[in-house]
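Task: fold both queries, return tokens.
Query 1:
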Amino acid sequence: MEADTKDAADQVSDDLQTERSKAVANMEEQRDKLNQKIDELTDKMNDKSNKADKTMSRQVDKLKTERQDLDKDIDVAKNATADAWQDVKAGFRKAGRSVGDAFDKAGDKLDNK
């Protein structure tokens, strides 16, 4: 009976580790995309007018803030306990949506300039 309980606990721990590793990998991929988008917008901003520069500069700053928040989420996820894991996942989902929104807004404003 004790062996079965230990095996079940080990399986839960393994599942948590696997899920957390996948989530961290996804967040790191999102951060890489964010870095790429920041670079693209910065390059485009250098080719636009002064008026566009101000708008794009604000958007790039917003994306950089999103990146900092994502870096914090990655650190938290890497160190999350089993008890905190559900909250971490929910926070990442929310952060992922806001990063996507920031991409869209930045791209739209650049395209309209």
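Query 1 returned. Query 2:
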Amino acid sequence: MTGANRGLGQALAAEALARGAGRVYAGTRRPLAHPDDRVTPLSLDITSPAQIQAAADQVGSLDMLINNAGIALPDDLTDPAVLERHLAVNLFGTHTVTQAFLPAVTRARGAIVNILSVNSLAALPFIIPAYSVSKAAAFSLTQSLRAHVAGQGVRVHAVLPGPVDTEMIRGFDIPKASPESVALAIFDAIDNGEEEIFPDPASAPMAALWRDGAAKVLERQFAQLTPISS
């Protein structure tokens, strides 16, 4: 799991342990000490390909890869460097981590869980537009990855929460779900085989609309298309 030292990542690690996980690999940028000896810390800056590969080399088999690390910075789309920073973490970091750990997940016929956002579906244009762009791109990556690895027995889940009470949005005066409740809902939905997971009161009403909506229908149709041979 990336971003495992605080917020939702910390809650996800705790929930995995509570459900009997024999080993949790906790990827963090800063050193992590954990009281449970089932937790194995991994030094993991997801913008560093060298660190990612070094972490992947320590893992032989992996039942579940959770891509949780991310950034969200207010902007107005005038500075391309801010957009590039979001893409570097939320899109390219997620992609690089997934490719590095995919052999371990494939050996276990496991699951990949990408923590995204309802802003993957609709932007907050006057608050966090660059973040929204990066999460929309990461959602598209998740959909394509799902089709590519389905034949290897690997499941891919997209988590699309509303506001969660973490440091990322602590300054926003809006209702927020607790990380613990969101982590619980995520693992329940994974157990139920849900491809898109709406794990909190703000996002949950979208679940039924999404499953029967045009975007999901198109995803299923496009996943059946194969390249035309020349």
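Both queries returned. Flag for query 2: The beta strands are 24-28, 39-43, 64-67, 111-115, 155-159, 196-197.
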